[in-house]
Amino acid sequence: MRYQISGKQIDIGEALQAHCKAEIEGVIAKYPGRPTDCLVVFSKDAHEYACETVVHLSSGLSVQAKAKETEIYAAFDAANEKMEKQLRRYKRRLKDHHRERPNPVELSGGSAYILAANSDNDADEPETLQPIIVAEMETRIPSLSVGEAVMQMELAGVPVLVFRNEKQANGVNVVYRRDDGNIGWIDPNTTS
């Protein structure tokens, strides 16, 4: 497994890198999925350290966790604990996912844009109705079943997931977490 352990404008020592590798290997060894690479990023926000971990599994799914603590080791340990909890929660489904799918999840490319937020004063009329694009990035759109998409959304800890429905030829679908805690599914091919 490849590791990329780095810090945003902070120095990460050899001891912390060795601690991260050992702890992640200990967690991953318990669960199926054969990880291919791991990304750990540390940053500092005022008096707190933030740690974000992302582990990519060979099946195409990824597990993501974030945590903030006042000490850098505690931030990593909290993120690692969240990741272990997610893997424990989805252990059976990950095994079934691997058994049912002979090939890894197919990924197709797409563009993602970050748009500028509205100004503080909403009463002012904007100069143009075109949004200001702050960032443009490449993103991957996985080809999954609806159940796998919900699992991936939970594992990644994101509120929305866009995916290609593998049961439909060109079906781009969306699953999202609703305000009432349930999961919503948008399937444009069933509307007429």
UniProtKB/TrEMBL annotation:
Domain (Sigma 54 modulation/S30EA ribosomal protein C-terminal): residue spans on this chain: 130-184
Pfam families membership: Ribosom_S30AE_C, Ribosomal_S30AE
Record-linked Gene3D superfamilies: Ribosome hibernation promotion factor-like, Sigma 54 modulation/S30EA ribosomal protein, C-terminal domain
Swiss-Prot/TrEMBL keywords: Coiled coil, Cytoplasm, Ribonucleoprotein, Ribosomal protein, Translation regulation
Molecular function GO labels: ribosomal small subunit binding
Gene Ontology cellular-component terms listed: cytosolic small ribosomal subunit
Chief place where the protein resides: cytoplasm
GO annotation, biological process: negative regulation of translational elongation
Subcellular location field: Cytoplasm
Source taxon at top rank: Bacteria
Alphabetical list of SUPFAM superfamilies matching this protein: Ribosome binding protein Y (YfiA homologue)
Stretches assigned to coiled coil: 73-100
NCBIfam families recorded: yfiA
Similarity comment: Belongs to the HPF/YfiA ribosome-associated protein family. Long HPF subfamily.
Function of the protein: Required for dimerization of active 70S ribosomes into 100S ribosomes in stationary phase; 100S ribosomes are translationally inactive and sometimes present during exponential growth.
Subunit relationships: Interacts with 100S ribosomes. Associates exclusively with 100S ribosomes, which are dimers of 70S ribosomes.
Protein name: Ribosome hibernation promoting factor
